[in-house]
Amino acid sequence: MILPETKKGTSTELSSFIPLDSLQNNAVNFLSVYLNDKKKSEIDRIDVRPEKGMVKFTFKSHFYEVQLDGATGELLQIDTRRSDVVEKIHDGSIVDYYLGFQSGTFKLIYTSIMSFALLVFTITGFWLWYGPKKMRKS
Q1: Where are the transmembrane segments (predicted)?
Q2: What whole-number distance in Å separates Cα of residue 117 and Cα of residue 49?
Q3: Is residue 52 within 8 Å of 12, Cβ to Cβ?
Q4: How far apart are CA 100 and CA 129, in angstroms?
Q5: pLDDT in tens, 73-124
Q6: What is the Cα gyration radius of the chain?
Q7: Of the candidates 86, 105, 131, 133, which lies 20 to 30 Å from 51 by C-alpha distance?
Q8: How far apart are CA 45 and CA 62, in angstroms?
Q9: Which 8-state DSSP code applies to residue 10?
C-alpha cells in the first residue's frame, strides 16, 4: 500500500475539534516518542478531514504521517508514507534529501538534463523515422 489507511475519529463536528496548535504539539510528541528522537520535527502539511473526524500531519524530515483524533487529540495511527519516497525518487529530490541540500540543486540539474535528453531523443527519433521515408520518395 502506498498511502496508510485513513482512520476515523470520534466526532465529525468541526466545532468539537481541539485547537490545531494543540494537535500539532501532540503529533510532534507522538512522533518523537515513536522514533525515540528528541529533536524537533518540522511539520510539512496538516490535512484536516472533518468527515472522518481526524487530522493528519506530515513532516519535512521524515517519511511518516501521524493521524490524530480531531476531538480528543488521541493518536489514531503513525505509519510510513511510501508515496513521498516514490515521489522523491521520481523527481530526483531523493538525492537532495539524503545529501542535505535544501536548495534542490540536484533535482534542478537532474530534471534539466532529463528534459533536454527527452527533447534530443524526440528530434533524433523523428529524424530517423522521417529520413528513410524522404529518401524512398526521391
Answers
A1: 108-130
A2: 42
A3: yes
A4: 44
A5: 999 999 999 999 999 999 889 999 888 888 888 999 999 999 999 999 999 9
A6: 23
A7: 86
A8: 12
A9: S
Could you read off the pLDDT of 115-129 as tens digits, one per residue? 999 999 999 999 999
CATH topology of domain 14-81: Nuclear Transport Factor 2; Chain: A, (3.10.450)
Tell me which residue has cell 480528543. 72
Number of residues assigned to the chain: 138
Q: Name the grid cell of 80.
A: 510510513
Looking at residue 49, its amino acid is R
Are the C-beta atoms of 82 and 27 separated by less than 8 Å? no
Residues 6+ apart with CB under 8 A from 133: none
